[in-house]
Write a structure and sequence with these properties.
mainly alpha; 0% strand
Length: 123
Amino acid sequence: MPKDMKKIVLNTLTWGFALWLFGYILGLVFFALVPPAVIGWYIMPFGIAATLWVLFKKVERDSFGCYVGVGIIWTLLAVLLDYLFIVLMLHPVDGYYKLDVYIYYALTFVLPLIAGWWKRKKK
């Protein structure tokens, strides 16, 4: 793998994990403050803001297709890490996969596309 490609993949994985961890930690904090059934709705605005900040300040890709790749990788990371560290580890009593989670996965994929489109339009 070329050196630039390694750097891009590492950057994508690092930011994807950091954003997931941010949401995970917020979930633990909100667990003490709000009913478990609505934790995702409380996390979502913070997650959207953090994701947009990362996309516009820390992620720079050469093409729109690269932003599609970011969206795919971040979504796969989110699904995998949620399953391992929430579903398998914490066994949510009322289940995990509800509307807020599906919206979160959709936004995890779509926000990089929006950022990529916006950045390409500005050039």
